[in-house]
Design brief:
This protein is an alpha+beta fold. The protein has eight helices and 29 strands. The longest helix is centred in the first third of the chain and has 65 residues, at about 25-90.
């Protein structure tokens, strides 16, 4: 009985099962020995050619890398020589020092390409835009109106726009459930991604009410592959744009993912720059994080005490958001915490936010206040009161990442352009108006193209979130606004300037969070809460 009880206890805890399988006899020993012999034979016979093949493959990869580097360098040299030839054609006098500085110019070109890839390139675009807008304003009214092109397509008020990084295609969403793709260069509609709501159509009448299908936010990835949309159905839809793109086809792209989880309408969407990390904000006070590489939901960020109205994210894994609780928050995803920024008792709730750099962003408020923020400071660096006139709130804003150009929209009849100064000292920081373009109606969303040459806007009769106000003479149009002449050279950076110092770009490391610089002074840092 004692032996039987011990055996039973071992069986219950799984010990005797493992021991019972270890029955080694001569037959099993022979099999094990033969398998070892085979493995030894296979190793001795196959290792040598496999190592040779790996070395050949590595050598081939190195040759390809070297060839591509030489081709890229030759292209840069050819561009520098062509610029030099154009300069000599325009000026008959030859400068002997240009030949000596040719290698330096090639080096600067490579350095600028690296800085642009890393996100530390500071582009001066506001001056070019101000000059071009000033010239157009001095001309006749008919030529001035040519800056704005309004395209028909949506029946109801457009609510949001998105622009690819290349600037070739743009997207727009509306209250009529429709989502369209536009070709910016030809100024034509390419295809319909989501059709206009029709109560007699079985495909579009599955909503209980017409307003349930309104599109309120959208974002497109930098590679131009995925388009994310969100609206009053509390869902985030992801479309694969490349799947059905073939020439001028009008077939709608497939929905590759549909994320649930929000309990209220989705009001904001943004992609992290040069990645497939997607963030969505909703009126349920939550921010959800997705990874489109795996088409999976990652986590939920909590902190806002009211509806999330806007979001943006640059190169770091640190999105910024703004809500009806009159707070702006910078989320440290890797540290599971976030910074809280408050504009004071005078600041009202905001509708829009846009990143300029990883540590700089701008916000537009309901009372017309335009603010420039630095993540190392609790309060805004500078503010502009009544930016669009008395009683007109800022409904949309956007910036060219890594530049000094900003655009804001409202219902005062103008798209206003601003120059942002982000120097080291207080005297070198500020916001200055550089021009305005007449656009009648509510400017619900803005997206500025590369190099600040143009911008697209969602212009309509009503605000994107309601119908409490209406501009009767406005038209519901997808709008393209020209900001610079295409014939202008890309001389946004002076090649004679030296490389940026670490003090100018404290966030030069793209993957670093620079937490030491932000937390260096407890009195100067914003409030920090855990998620």
């Amino acid at each position: 009985k004692g032996n039987h009880a011990a055996t039973t206890n071992q069986t219950l805890y799984g010990k005797s099962r493992g021991r019972g399988q270890l029955k080694l006899d001569n037959h099993n020993d022979d099999e094990i020995a033969s398998s070892d012999d085979d493995s030894m034979i296979s190793r001795s016979g196959s290792d040598v050619p496999s190592s040779d093949s790996e070395e050949e493959a590595a050598a081939t990869v190195e040759d390809v890398k070297l060839r591509l580097a030489k081709e890229y360098l030759s292209k840069v040299e050819a561009n520098v020589k062509s610029q030099k030839q154009q300069h000599q054609d325009s000026d008959d006098e030859e400068d002997s020092s240009e030949d000596e500085d040719e290698d330096d110019r090639v080096g600067y070109e490579l350095q600028l390409a690296r800085r642009e890839r890393e996100g530390t390139l500071d582009q001066k675009l506001a001056t070019h835009v101000q000059t071009y807008i000033g010239k157009q304003q001095q001309q006749q009214q008919q030529q001035q109106s040519s800056l704005v092109t309004q395209l028909r397509g949506h029946d109801l008020t457009p609510t949001c726009v998105a622009l690819e990084a290349s600037g070739q295609y743009a997207y727009s969403g509306s209250k009529d459930h429709s989502v369209f793709q536009w070709d910016v260069e030809t100024q034509k509609r390419v295809r319909c991604i989501i059709p206009i709501y029709d109560k007699h159509n079985a495909e579009s009448n599955h909503y209980r009410k017409r307003t349930d299908g309104e599109v309120l936010a959208m974002a497109v990835s930098d590679d131009g592959r995925y388009l994310a949309t969100g609206g009053r159905d509390n869902l985030v839809h992801v479309f694969d744009i490349r799947a059905s793109r073939s020439g001028t086809t009008t077939t709608s792209p497939p929905v590759v993912a549909q994320f649930k989880g929000h309990k209220s309408p989705v009001t904001s969407l943004t992609f992290r720059t040069q990645s497939l990390q997607l963030f969505s904000g909703s009126q349920d006070r939550c921010i959800r994080h997705y990874n489109l590489d795996e088409m999976a939901y990652v986590e939920t960020l909590y902190g806002h005490q009211s509806a999330v109205m806007g979001m943006d994210c640059y190169r770091k894994e640190r999105p910024v958001s703004i809500g009806r609780d009159r707070t702006m928050r910078a989320w440290k995803i890797s540290e599971d915490s976030h910074l809280i920024f408050r504009g004071g008792s005078r600041a009202s709730s905001a509708d829009c936010i846009s990143c300029v750099r990883d540590n700089w962003f701008v916000t537009g408020h309901d009372d017309g206040l335009l603010s420039l923020w630095l993540t190392e400071k609790k309060k805004p660096v500078t503010t502009i009161e009544n930016a669009h006139g008395f009683g007109c709130g800022i409904s949309s804003c956007d910036t060219v990442k890594g530049s000094d150009l900003c655009a804001t929209g409202s219902n005062d009849g103008f798209l206003r352009l601003w120059q942002l100064s982000m120097g080291e000292s207080l005297s070198e920081r500020g916001v200055e108006s550089i021009g305005e373009v007449p656009v009648r109606g509510y400017i619900n969303d803005i997206a500025i193209g590369p190099k600040g040459r143009f911008c697209v806007a969602a212009v309509g009769q009503e605000h994107r979130l309601g119908r409490w106000d209406r501009v009767a003479k406005a038209k519901n149009r997808f709008t393209i606004i020209e900001l610079r002449d295409d014939d202008e050279g890309d001389d946004d950076i002076d090649l004679d300037e030296g490389p940026p110092t670490s003090s100018m770009y404290p966030s030069s490391g793209n993957n670093a969070d620079d937490s030491e610089s932000e937390n260096s002074s407890s009195s100067a840092t914003p409030d920090e809460d855990d998620d």
